Amino acid sequence: MNLFGVLEVSGSALKAERIRAEVVAANMANAETTRTADGTPYRRQHVVFGSSAEAGDSFQNQLLSANGLALRGPSYANQPPPGGVEVTAVVADKATTLRRYDPQHPDADKDGYVAYPDINPLTEMADLMGATRAYGLNSSAIQATKSMIAASLDILK
């Protein structure tokens, strides 16, 4: 992996963490949503991350393999190249809904109970803080890589 590969890996992590933060924001925004398009309460969403084999799919690697050139040195011949991260799915939580007694609510059932999404603001804030920290760490990795590239260019002057 060259320095630009580091940027690709960190860039994929920035994208994945941004999506995670968007899902957390959607969960917090819909914490009191009792009716969605299908008539049921909103369900908490989870982001599922997966490792991407981005190094094998990148334009550079496809060009090198099309020309019969090696992707890696001999010490890495049998190891898969490190890749980035990607969001493989956004899945709905299977937890049951919370029932609150509110007979005046338009979505109340015949007994006066309303089904609310099972969303805990503390859990969502912890998840958002995790996404923020991971985003910041990957941003720092990009800054460090930029410094390494700049130092390499200074050597060539």
Name the descriptors.
single chain; 157 residues; cell projection; Flg_bb/hook_C_dom; Flag_bb_rod_N; 15% strand; alpha+beta; two-stranded antiparallel sheet; 4 helices
Strand and helix layout:
Layout: H1 3-29, E1 45-51, H2 54-57, H3 59-66, E2 85-92, E3 98-101, E4 113-116, H4 121-156
Antiparallel strand pairs: 1-2, 3-4
Helix pairs in contact: 1-4
Family: Belongs to the flagella basal body rod proteins family.
Keywords: Bacterial flagellum, Cell projection, Cilium, Flagellum
Domain Flagellar basal-body/hook protein C-terminal: 111-154
Radius of gyration: 23 Å
Kindly report how far apart the N and C termini lie.
24 Å
Strand order, sheet with most strands: 1-2
Summed up, the helix count is: 4
> What percent of residues are in strands?
5-15%
Mean pLDDT, all residues: 86
Tell me, briefly, the overall form: elongated
Any low-confidence stretches, pLDDT <50, length ≥5? none
- Domains, number: 1
| Main β sheet profile | 2 strands, antiparallel
Q: Would you tell me the structural class of the helices and strands?
A: alpha+beta
Order of helices and strands: HEHHEEEH
State the total count of DSSP E strands: 4
Helix content: 40-55%
Domain Flagellar basal body rod protein N-terminal: 7-34
Protein name: Flagellar basal-body rod protein FlgC
Family: Belongs to the flagella basal body rod proteins family.
Keywords: Bacterial flagellum, Cell projection, Cilium, Flagellum
